[in-house]
Amino acid sequence: MLKKITFAVVVAGLLAGCAQGLSPVGLGLITDVKGPITATGATGSKTGTACANTILGLVNEGDASIEAAKAAGGISVVASADYHTQGFYPFVGETCVIVTGQ
């Protein structure tokens, strides 16, 4: 019995860092949430998106920075920046930054 408990604790500990992203409500088995990063008094009709992905917390790639989202949308003045996190814990995850502005 002690071996099973120890095994469960070890596996939970190993998976604790896998496929995580931003979430205003925490991470669940299936995550699909959006939340704010920042907003300014500026307005704008352009939108840019930049994403980063993870597989098992072992393979992580992408640039989900505000700068990358600005470049993708041709934005020089930021009106707002939000994020969108999706995933199936602990296997895959994606966090995107969505920037609006001029």
Sum this structure up briefly.
The chain has helices at 2-15, 66-73; strands spanning 30-39, 46-55, 59-62, 78-88, 92-101. The protein is of the alpha+beta class. The protein has one domain.
Number of domains: 1
Classify the secondary structure makeup into a structural class. Answer: alpha+beta
Shape: elongated
Which H/E pattern describes the elements? HEEEHEE
Biggest sheet strand line-up: 1-4-5-2-3
Gyration radius, rounded: 17 Å
What does the largest sheet look like?
A: 5 strands, antiparallel
Q: Please tally the helical runs, counting DSSP H or I stretches of 4 or more residues.
A: 2
Helicity level: 10-25%
Beta-strand content bin: 35-45%
Can you count the beta strands?
5
Quote the average pLDDT.
84
Please mark out the parts with pLDDT under 50 across 5 or more consecutive residues, or reply none: none
Task: Give the distance, in angstroms, between the N- and C-terminal Cα atoms.
Answer: 61 Å
